[in-house]
Amino acid sequence: MIKICLLKKSRKNKTVFKILFLRLIMNNKYKHVFFDLDHTLWDFESNSHETLLDLFEKYSLLNESVNDKHHFINRYYYHNEIYWEQFRKGELSREDLRLIRFRTTLNEFNIDNVELVQQLAAAYLEILPTKTNLFSDTIEILDYLVKNYSMHIITNGFEEIQFKKIANTGIGKYFKYIITSEAAGSQKPNPAIFRFAMQLANAEIKNSLFIGDSIEADINGAKAVGMDYVFYNPKKTPHNESIMNEITALTELKKIL
Questions:
Q1: Do 114 and 169 lie in a common domain?
Q2: CA separation (Å) from 28 to 168, 176, 177, 188?
Q3: Is 156 contained in some domain?
């Protein structure tokens, strides 16, 4: 019995040592950690939803045409996703994106009001960055990582808006460089924005890790430049991609870094 217990303990110790050894290797490998912002650190869905509810109150949108605010918001999200994809591909300008997502949604509810579209578009971008909802473990993981890594953000969002989000949530102190698609002149997954970030941060692909929530924009972009990455998938959305690292909570990064 004693021999069996010692054997089990020995195997357990080997497993623990193996995990610690692998963590040591990973910790020595990376010097720079790059994060996506929206949907990864900053809870875009919660903040956007609060903003749209504010717009309903501010512009009294509930009427005969729009009698369900949640249905209206869901249709806005549907159209916004389509137009953001076009914007990411360079098929739509920033200004067109700001307007068309509201115009199309309003038209679906038989509302044709150019002035209202412009007001909603402007107010949305004015109110949105004032919202401060982060994912519940954002601060915990940033506090943990900042002690040992140079941290940066790579984001496709509008530069002025993204910097306001970072300032209002107080997370700017954790990051050395904030790289926006506007500054880089390209958007994820274009390899150019990752190369721009590497040059700005004085980092190398081999000692950098990227964390993001979008397979198309974040993961495929990192793959394109040969950069190690972590796919943040809090909703456990099914996919068929071959993924290097996948987590459902940011604190799981402690197993990697």
A1: no
A2: 33, 20, 21, 27
A3: yes
Tokens 């924005």 sit on residue? 193
The rounded mean pLDDT for the chain is 91
Nearest to 71 by CA among 43, 98, 46, 108: 108
Max CA separation in the chain (angstroms)? 82
Same domain, 144 and 228: yes
Taking residue 249's Cβ as centre, other Cβ atoms within 10 Å add up to 15
Q: For residues 118 and 135, state if they share a domain.
A: no
Q: What is the dihedral of CA 216, 139, 163, 47, to 10 degrees?
A: 70
d(CA 193, CA 49): 29
181 and 232, same domain (yes or no): yes
Into how many domains does the chain fold? 2
| 190 has a pLDDT exceeding 70 | yes
203 with 245, same domain: the answer is yes
| Residue among 16, 15, 26 nearest 145 (CA) | 26
* pTM, rounded to two decimals: 0.85
From 130, 145, 161, give the residue that closes a domain.
130
Q: How far out from the chain centre does Cα 30 lie? A: 20
Helix and strand totals (H; E) in the chain? 10, 6
